[in-house]
Sequence to fold (409 residues):
Amino acid sequence: MTAREPPPIRPAPLRLRVRPAAESPLRAGHPWLFADSIREQNRPGEPGELAVIYDRRNQFLALGLFDPDSPLRVRVLQAGQPAQIDAAWWAARLERAIGIRANLFDGQTTGYRWIHGENDGWPGLVLDRYAETLVLKLYTQAWFPRLAEITKLLVARLQPGRIVLRLSRNIQAAARAWRLADGQMLHGAAPESDVVFLEDGLRFGAEVRCGQKTGFFLDQRENRRRVGGLAAGRRLLNVFSFSGGFSLHAARAGAASVADLDLSAHALASARRNFALNRDDSRVAACPRQDLKADAFAWLGARPARVFDLIVLDPPSLARRAADKPAALQAYASLARRAAPHLSPGGLLVACSCSAHVPAAEFFQTVQGALAGVRRLERLQTTGHPPDHPATFAEAQYLKAIYLLCFPR
Ligand code: SAH
Fold:
């Protein structure tokens, strides 16, 4: 008889008790527990361990993924009642996210978000689809121990051609210990070039292994669509153009011309490639297109050489921290004010913000306030999050846009 291995010693479950003030947000479904809200912890925890959170009466509050290196110490997976977090639980969680997106997209749109982090019950994890390619982006090391299991589940359920791993900058050092790196393949072969996908029938290339976000700004799809719907016959200035998404939608809809303005030569080159990908569309082929490599604030601040009938302002996040909010509001106001002289009478300004620290109402007020002195405004509409990027708690609300017709005063 062979000697039996002793059973592995299982550490006691990681148990946390929180300060009273942290109880009600957790009860209400808020997905974050900050380190300074923890009152008691039975032992040190490892990255990715399941932590069980109790209230002051020792009642279960929530359980979630523990990250000892993040001030965001626990990201909640399950609140209200305990659950066994096993393969069936993960499969059900994935099904829930897939279900929310059922029927949102037809075959003409193959780029969208399958999983939007906390808002889909997958805290700190994003999953984007670009045709046959999935891009899995992680924002906490707490996922590293589960990555193989999650990859297996995604392959079985979604049957992608490949899965690319992306890591937020703050977890790239910790990833090395797990032999993980930003841009590596989790499944399938690396793409040879940009991954081509469809958005409303338009072809776009995404740099999935190294591009910003997961390679494309999928969150602006609805606004690109709307701008397309408003662009016929108009001359478009696409400020902060990145890979030319707004311009392509406008060109296909019959815009008189499009100009892409971006600081990055790389971004402008990707916009040119995207236009080339859609040359078989006669309106895209016929639409005059211009590159403007410039700083948006400086270019808009200079005297206009010509005017546009439609200007889109879609800057990167201007407030990374809450303390940046006043400066961000000033920058939004300054962009709108500088854009005004470039607009023809009755021209349409579309101003966007992707800063979570700037609330929508304040953004809309700021943009309108900045223009009110110089233009008579007609507010066409405001927009928020697209349905594949749901926002289920206050901090998750980052995206908003306002559409303003601007008439001479
Ligand atoms: N509208 C795009 C996404 C914009 S992302 C879309 O629909 O896909 C923001 C872009 O702003 C990036 O391409 C970045 O290169 C550019 N950018 C950042 N700062 C800038 C500045 N000061 N002037 C001009 N472009 C800038």
